[in-house]
Amino acid sequence: MLRYIIKRIFEAIPVLFIVATVSFFLMKMMPGGPFDTEKVTTPEIKLAIEKQYGLNQPIWKQYIDYMGHLARGDLGPSFKYAGWTVNELLAGAFPVSLELGCYALAFALVVGMVAGIIASLRKNTASDYVPMSLATLGICLPTFVTGPLLILLFGICLHWYNTSGWYLPSDRVLPSITLGLYYTAYISRLTRGGMLEILNQDFIRTARAKGATEWRIVWKHALRGGVLSVVSFLGPAVAGIITGSLVVETIFQIPGLGRFFIMAGFNRDYTMVMGTVLFFAALTIFANLVVDILQVWLNPKLRFE
Amino acid sequence: MSAEFPNVTQHTSEVEVGQSLWQDAWHRLRQNKMAVAGAIFVLLLAIASFLAPIIAPHSYDQTNLAIGATPPSWNHLFGTDVLGRDLFSRTLYGGRISLSVGLVATAVSVIIGVLYGSISGYVGGRVDVVMMRIVDILYSLPFVIFVILLMVIFGRNIYLLFGAIGAVEWLDMARIVRGQVMSLKKQEFVEAAVALGLRKRRIILRHMIPNVLGIVIIYSTLIVPSVMLLEAFLSFLGFGVQPPMSSWGTLINDGAKSMEEYPWLLIFPSLFFAITLFSLNFVGDGLRDALDVRASKD
Amino acid sequence: MQFEFSHLSRRRFIRGLGAMAALSALPGCGRQTPVDVGDREEIINIGNGSEPQDLDPHLITGQTDHYVVMSLMEGLVSEDPVDLHPIPGAAESWDLSPDQKVYTFHLRKNGRWTNDDPVTATDFLESFKRILTLSLGSEYSYMHWVVRNARAYNEGKLKNFDEVGYKVLDDLTFQVTLANPTPYFLSLINNDAWYPVPMKVLRKYGDPYLRGNRWTHPGHFVGNGPFALSKWRVNDVVAVKKSPTYWDRENVRLNGINFYPIESDDTEERAFRSGQLHATYTLPLAKIDYYKEHYPELLHINAFLGCYFYKFNVTKAPLTDKRVRQALTMSIDREAIVKTVTRGGQLPAYNLVPPGTAGYTCRTLVKEDVAAAKRLLAEAGYPDGKGMPTIELLYNTLEAHRTIAEAIQQMWKSKLGIEVRLVNQEWKVYLDAQRTLDYQICRASWIGDYVDPDTFLNMWLKDGGNNETGWSNPEYDRLIDEASRTANPKQRLEVFQKAEAILMDELPILPIYFYTSTRAIRPEVKGWYPTILDRHPYKFVYLEKKAK
Fold this sequence. Notes:
Strand order of the largest sheet of chain C: 12-16-11-15-13-14
Mean pLDDT of chain A: 85
Low-confidence stretches of chain C: 1-14, 16-29
Number of strands of chain C: 18
Largest sheet of chain A: none
Structural class of chain A: mainly alpha
Shape of chain C: globular
Radius of gyration of chain C: 25 Å
Shape of chain A: globular
Largest interface: A-B, 66 and 58 residues
Largest sheet of chain C: 6 strands, mixed
Number of helices of chain C: 18
Mean pLDDT of chain C: 90
CATH class of the domain at 93-298 in chain A: Mainly Alpha
CATH architecture of the domain at 93-298 in chain A: Orthogonal Bundle
Helix content of chain A: over 70%
Structural class of chain C: alpha+beta
Order of helices and strands of chain A: HHHHHHHHHHHH
Strand content of chain C: 15-25%
Strand content of chain A: under 5%
Low-confidence stretches of chain A: none
Distance between the termini of chain C: 17 Å
Oligomer: heterotrimer
């Protein structure tokens, strides 16, 4: 197992390198720069600013400089938020996004799996359609609709929660639900599908014939199928959840990572773009590793090579 | 003769005609009421949308600043938006964009994803490792930059919109299919096929893919809404639908901004959006159930 | 107090402000809203639009950045809260020479930085040297170019800073020598570029002449203004507390200010409604009518020194023809746009400089006349729009810009018969397109840096960096230059009249409306007056305590 993990880490390094390189050059191809403003400055001043960030040098030199810094773990200063470094900004926002992501995921897993399990057991009845439909609402209504709706109901009308901010423990509730609803749909459908794959097999019929309780059937056999599908999906999804959602963060004014991820490109904040890309890549690789291990553990047939 | 064997005649007149797997599936699908209802609804909606130039009561871009946003009335079934444009017509026209983008982009991503994932999962070994790392790399590349560059290089083009969306969505599908294929690989029927000497390509196409169809269909029904909303985001950025043309996604985007003042601007497009997705989901579930080879035949 | 799901509950909530006791009986809470806490502790919560890029006055470029920095720093002069006219700031008085070129500022004896160092004339000299140093690349250094030789030094042409028009006469006397008499000089210097910076602190945390200096971080920041930086969490809050060393601290009533960088106007409005903010930065378009009708006492709409207009790229046919530009300008209905689309009480604009700017109101106005427009278009060779190629209208991604563009697109189509294609680009690409003149018509706006017509009119000089239309007119350039040398204010404004008349005839731009600032502000906020630059000097603001 340990050797497998080390092997995967070694495989990750070329991946990160390629991601960094491709992103770097793609990014430089974009028109417009970080210091273009509506009120135009003189060419001398623009050059003075660019010199400070090394932007006046040939691209290959900028690339080498950047990779050199990267090797030392220095992601550089943010071009947009001139007072801060990328490391500081990401480090400050990561715990927030991690927390939000965990709650959202917990919500999605609990609600989604329960809905999926019930639906698969009562296939094609009302107990199937209703939970599935409710779960699907999560994708049908985008977060910029569900978020404000939840805020209007619970924040403004009922006054149970603050409408925005990330200060009190109760501030976590509405954003987590809003973000989680989206994944609930995925998880419930995948769970239902995965469980049906198993439930329809002959050995289940045999188990039922032998008098096994429904609960035992679900827990010992069918759930594995449901969980397997969910786990394959979760790998990449976790990276997405943790790196946050710009929309949820904007609606609830949460100082998370999502904002940096999307806005960096629009701001031409080169260092932030690279920082977020690499962070995301590293997170995805890690999540995939965990998922692959989980998959092997859940499905003994895969224990192999 | 019938006296000695009373049941024979009955049996011979009711010879069971063998059904192929597909006919079986079709039969089961037809019996699933929700799936049928869903399919009919989507079909009707598609027809209505594509006939929009003929059946829409107003044009989608005629502004009327004198009246501004008004609630539903006989003249304007869904009300009007801030510029006085008829929402019903805009929703109908919007359907064309959303449905085409949704279905085409999803189809593209499914085809690429399934092929890629099955090959990677089945062949395994080094090939699998490289293919999956490529997926990891593509997954990590910043999407926003990719979109901006496409816009700059190719200009505004709705077909490019399909391309951009498809290019992003196939990655998840590939991963999921690979996972499925890897677990299927170990099953007896595959070992049998290998033992029989079937070539890899045949095994993948004829045996692997039909067995992953279930999960592929389910995941596809999840991709469609994601694609439609991605289209809304891209159109909002200027890459995709050009104003005054709109899609459901952009209508929902706009409606959300004034959901308290002019709720109809949000309700109607969202309703269409949601019901279409529900229908697709029922169809998808029905298809999955119908195609499940292990489902009992009773 | 029971809360129902209806409009009524909101109205009752707002009205129930005075009854704090009743509020704390809310079911499920018992907690006080942030506004309640703020009212009690005299700390005001203000929505501030977007996260500040930095807090270094010489490096910031945005309005929201300024709103924070103006609490932390004080320039030679300060602003009156009611009409922003210059009042004593770090300088308690000043003298003007007879030729109107030399200002001598007398600094106060008790001026202190937050680290208790005295504020001296040398501080100002070194600060100004810093902002004019080319290596720093300050984008607002041009605000100093009215000073003798400042521009030359800033551009690296002059090496000796001593030749720039700044002089330290003694510790508390600072002299500024201008290149020309500049009547608006005192309002000009109420700007971040003219704030001092604590050079000693800058030297401690990095190179003062380069970016990336860490002096603005909480714990390091030192300022000379009414408030001191106490907390700065990115995308979360910038909190400032009353400065114990400020010379006028006796008269500063607020104990602190919390600036919340809420980007989404919907989120900000909801925060205001639920008692998290005392004042918002803006208000969503869709909500303006609602507030007008139900909470007019909370709604503050005021004229703002800015103009929203379209630029014409006069180098590309058919816009090379003045008549086409005039036709396009005369055939839109500005009243309709302002009433139905923007709804924020904006004024339709028939010229560029907002009326009443420093006593200047343009006399040459654009007329809206569809018949005349059609005639002009026909004269130009496109009767009823026939033969006119499709024109592209560029705007940057924002719902409001799109809605206005769609409305205008329809107006041109129905009244002139011409086809316009809307092109939406994201911000940087949009800026790039303007810079490289890669557009036909594009949306633009200009917010005045200081209260004088000059800030709107000096853009259109030939090769002016912000011109970006390809238009120029030698007579116009001559008039603007003449204005900069005219000492008599009345005569100067007359020169501007002539210049703007040329602009309104040749129309390289299409004025649409004058901005307003739209905020929601709670009734307990006092000392907050409507000003043309939407600036509200915080030392005069306070929260009126309610009788319990």
